[in-house]
Structure formats: structure tokens, C-alpha cells
Amino acid sequence: MVYQALYRKWRPRTFDSVIGQEAITDTLKNAIIRNTISHAFLFAGPRGTGKTSCAKIFAKALNCTNLKNGEPCNECENCKAADKGSMPDIMEIDAASNNGVDEIREIRDKVKYAPTQGKYKVYIIDEVHMLSIGAFNALLKTLEEPPAHVVFILATTELQKVPATIISRTQRYNFKRISKSDLEKRMQYILQQENIKYDEKALSVIAQVADGGMRDALSILDQLLSYEKESVNYDDALKVTGFAARENIEKILLSLLNLDAESALKFSRQSLSEGASSKNILDELIDLTTNSLMINKAGDQENDSNFLTDEFAEKVKEFSPARFFKLITLANDALNDLRYTNQQQIPLEVFLVRASQNEEKKTAQTVSKNISVVTPAANNNDLQAEIAALKKQVVELTQKVGKISQPTASFDKDHVFHIDNSGSSSNAKVKETKEKKQVKKVKPVKKLSKNNDQNKKQVYHVLENATREDLNKVKEVWPDLQSVLEVSERALLDVLKPVAASPDQIVMKCKYTLWFEKASSDSDLMAKLTGYIEKFTKHSYDIVLVPDNDWLDVRQEFVQSHRQELLAKKKKEIQAVQEEKSQEADNPEVVNKAKDLFGDLVRVKD
């Protein structure tokens, strides 16, 4: 007989055998018992948490001829056919390889046909987020109003990629990660049924590596059984998974708490030589440190079982919670650094050295040194002389500021001078110059772009030729961009807003300066946005960006500098409208037509 993997052999066949999702399975069973079955379901959650299994059980229960409290009997012809995958009314579709419009259209054409063997036709679409936009659009109407005999079950691991229009047409069920204890209980049950001996510590390692996924846990267990078929033991689990031995992790943590960097490095290198990875060592250290903190701070007795020795639990109670917080923070930083280097051992060893330093002691020593320098201060006469010298420098600088030209003097109201204790006039001038430069940098209008004048000219050019028609055209297609941009790019539409448009350019104000700088430097994103605007408006526009804080100032400057031109343009438009009305009034054909329609009620006025 062909060997079958454990996760396939022990796939749940009833709702009660699904682990860790009791709220969802109870809801589905009650829906079947009460005959309140929706037309579409969406199962979302991490990998290996039971989404596809629940979908298959639910589809089987819908067509079972001998239901038992909402559970499929697994004995009737329909149940047996469903278990074998030969049930014609249950169709499983992999959206990753069938993600086109044609495949969805084929489904849409076939749903109208009645089921051949069961009561319902059930379509299970796995990894539904892989469908294209066109395929989702083709599915919308059918998903909203399918025939009474059709049920759709959509499954996905990435809910954020599913359009909101699809989610709103379904009943959504969020599958959670399976707890470590539930994973261990399920593995114990399977091993007992298979008559295989096991070490509970080995199952604990597997559950930790599986990260809440039952399929991952059973795959690792299968791998261990291939390594040693007679039993599942702790040492083999460490070798296969690459996790460090718990004894070494406890020794490393105690070394860090005792500020012994040498011992911590020795035990970590020992774990690395035994096959552990830097990431696994850091993960286990964070887990063990968190459990130690719970014992230390909250007296959580449940975490005692996570320690190998009783004396370790007693030793960690001697340290302050601040030490544990520091270790967790530094370990998380090291985990983040691992993503950016190929030398995986370096972030680990840097973490061990940093965590072994007594920074609190160094900080206290530094403060004490500073205090010792300040405490034996000079006598009162010296202090008074120094204060008098500083006052004299302030008077001199104030007089010099008064002689500065009027434009520069406008900054003097908010100007704060930092006086150099040396008292030399040259140093004072240098300080004054630096402070002026700093004040100019804070000026808010200087944020348009690297070339402020050039950007301002571009905005002026748009405003000179701006039309209401072009602006409305861009605003009308703005919501359509939400459907074509990626999720990470849609945030850009929330911070950008079109405020003026000419026949060839658009001015968009940016809500935040940080986003303005990011968008200005991202030429690919701007090109994509320009392309989509051209596609929807059937017209080509260039984009000119301006920060939100600067837009009002730029527009006000433009109005002031072009006041006469704007008034003349407005006057010209009014005259054109009046002339058009006058021509219509003088046109006898218009008057005669009006008389034909309304008779003697028409009165022609000049």
C-alpha cells in the first residue's frame, strides 16, 4: 500500500475532530441543524489551521443523507464518495492555477444546472486571493445571487488581498492559530493510535516550531518518524528542527542575567555546533525570558512547567523585571537584524555581549562624575563675574542685531541666541550666523521640492491655465484608482488630493511632508499613477506635487501677483456670457419659436 503522510491520513472527517476551532465548527453545525445555510462562506486564517478541512466536512454534511446532530455520518454513499474525492456535486478549485476570467465564467455557466447526486452543488475555491481582478469581477454577481442549490466556500490565507466587494457578499469565519497545548494533545492521540512511543519534550519542541499550524506539526512529526521509526525522542527533535536544547537556553539566560558574557557565548556556540540556528536560539530566549518574567512579576505557576529544573525558577526570581524587559527588547532587535545579514551568528553574539553589560551601572557612574564636576563650583565672586560678562555680550549682540536690514530683522522676534562662554566677538558672530541659518531652515514655505523656484513656476503654470472641467474630470476617476492600485499603494490616494488642473497638468497637494518626499522620489509610483489617470480620463496629465502646508501660501501668492490678470479674465468671461444672451434675444428665429410654443404669453424685453 502506498504510504500516506500523517496530515493526510489524520485529516479531520467530522467537525468534532477539528482541533482549536470550536466556535466555528459549532456555528456550522447549528446552521445545518436549523437549515439556515448561507449561499457563500469565506474561511480566512493562517496555514494549517483547518480551513480546507472544515470546507470539505461542511460540503459533505450538506449532501449527507443521514445527518447526526449536524455531523456527516461518513457511512452513506454521498459521504464515502466525498471522502474519496469522487462526489460530482463537490468541486474543489485551486485559484492559484485557475485564476483567469475564463475559469470563473465556466463556473458561472454551470451553476444553473441542478446537482446530480446530492442536495447541494458546493464549490470550494482554495487560495481565493490568487484570482485576478477580472476573475473577481466575473464572480461578483454569481456570488451574490446564486441558485438555491449552490453554495460557495472560499478559503484564503491572505484576507487583505480579497476585494471588499467579495467579503461583503459572504459569511466570514476567522480561523485562529492552534494553541501549543492543543497541538501536543493531537500529536499524542495520533502517536497512541499508531502505537509509537514518544517523549513529551519532543512534542513540545515540534509544537513550538509549528507556530500554531497543525499541518506543520504533523509534517515535522512525519519527518521525525522517518528519522527513527521506533519512537519520537527529544534529541532527534532538536536535530531535525534545529532548535537549541532547553538546558543550554536556560544556561544562556542565567549567564545574561548574571552579566557573564563569556559563559553566554560559550553555551550559544555549543548550541550552534549541535545544529541550532541563531534565529531559534533568539526565539527560545524570548520565550523563556517571557515565562521567567511572568514567574517573577505575576507569580504565574502555569509557567513553572516550562522550566526543566526547579532551581532555575527560584534563581530568576532574584532579578528585577527591568532586566527581563531589557533582554526581550535586545533579542527582538537582534531578530530584526538577522533579516539583513548573511552572517547569522554576528547579530546573536552582539546581542549576547550587549545584554551582558550593566548599562545602569555605567549610567550611574557617568551621572556621578558629572555631579562631582559641578558640585565643587567656583566661589560666588567668580560666578557673578561670569554672569556680568554674559550680560555684556547680550547687550552687544542686541545692538548689532538692530543694525541688520529690515527683511532679516523680521526673524529677530523669534530669534534666540546661545552665548559662547569664551566671550570672544568672533565666536559670537559665528554663533549668530549659525542661528540665522537655522531659523531660515525652519521657514515652512521652503518645502515644495529641492528646487523651490522651479516647482513654484510649475504650480503657477497650472494655475494660469486651470479649468474647472479638467479638475472635475480628475476628481471623477479618483475613486476608480482604488480598484487598480495595490494595497500598499492605496494609502497614497488618502494623502494626495487634486486641487487644480490645466489641460496638461494636475496640481496635487500632499497631506504629510514625509509622504510628499517619498512620492516625489518614487518615479515608478508616479508613473503608474499618471498612467492610470490617463487610462480613465482618456487624456494625458503630468503631476505636480505640493505639500499641504505650502499650498495655501503658494495659491495666495499667485492670486496677489496675478490679481489684475484674473480680474480681466473673469470680466471677459462675464462679457462673453452676456453677449451670448443678447444674441439669443436679438435672434428673431428664437423669438418666433418661443411665440409658437407659448403664444401671446411671450414678452420680448431689451
UniProtKB/TrEMBL annotation:
<dbReference type="GO" id="GO:0009360">
    <property type="term" value="C:DNA polymerase III complex"/>
</dbReference>
<keyword id="KW-0548">Nucleotidyltransferase</keyword>
<keyword id="KW-0862">Zinc</keyword>
<dbReference type="InterPro" id="IPR022754">
    <property type="entry name" value="DNA_pol_III_gamma-3"/>
</dbReference>
<keyword id="KW-0067">ATP-binding</keyword>
<dbReference type="GO" id="GO:0003677">
    <property type="term" value="F:DNA binding"/>
</dbReference>
<dbReference type="InterPro" id="IPR050238">
    <property type="entry name" value="DNA_Rep/Repair_Clamp_Loader"/>
</dbReference>
<keyword id="KW-0547">Nucleotide-binding</keyword>
<dbReference type="InterPro" id="IPR001270">
    <property type="entry name" value="ClpA/B"/>
</dbReference>
<keyword id="KW-0808">Transferase</keyword>
<comment type="similarity">
    <text>Belongs to the DnaX/STICHEL family.</text>
</comment>
<dbReference type="Pfam" id="PF22608">
    <property type="entry name" value="DNAX_ATPase_lid"/>
</dbReference>
<dbReference type="InterPro" id="IPR008921">
    <property type="entry name" value="DNA_pol3_clamp-load_cplx_C"/>
</dbReference>
<feature type="domain" description="AAA+ ATPase">
    <location>
        <begin position="37"/>
        <end position="179"/>
    </location>
</feature>
<dbReference type="InterPro" id="IPR003593">
    <property type="entry name" value="AAA+_ATPase"/>
</dbReference>
<dbReference type="InterPro" id="IPR027417">
    <property type="entry name" value="P-loop_NTPase"/>
</dbReference>
<keyword id="KW-0235">DNA replication</keyword>
<dbReference type="Pfam" id="PF13177">
    <property type="entry name" value="DNA_pol3_delta2"/>
</dbReference>
<dbReference type="GO" id="GO:0005524">
    <property type="term" value="F:ATP binding"/>
</dbReference>
<protein>
    <recommendedName>
        <fullName>DNA-directed DNA polymerase</fullName>
        <ecNumber>2.7.7.7</ecNumber>
    </recommendedName>
</protein>
<feature type="region of interest" description="Disordered">
    <location>
        <begin position="422"/>
        <end position="444"/>
    </location>
</feature>
<dbReference type="GO" id="GO:0003887">
    <property type="term" value="F:DNA-directed DNA polymerase activity"/>
</dbReference>
<dbReference type="GO" id="GO:0006261">
    <property type="term" value="P:DNA-templated DNA replication"/>
</dbReference>
<keyword id="KW-0479">Metal-binding</keyword>
<dbReference type="GO" id="GO:0046872">
    <property type="term" value="F:metal ion binding"/>
</dbReference>
<dbReference type="InterPro" id="IPR012763">
    <property type="entry name" value="DNA_pol_III_sug/sutau_N"/>
</dbReference>
<dbReference type="Pfam" id="PF12169">
    <property type="entry name" value="DNA_pol3_gamma3"/>
</dbReference>
<keyword id="KW-0239">DNA-directed DNA polymerase</keyword>
<dbReference type="InterPro" id="IPR045085">
    <property type="entry name" value="HLD_clamp_pol_III_gamma_tau"/>
</dbReference>
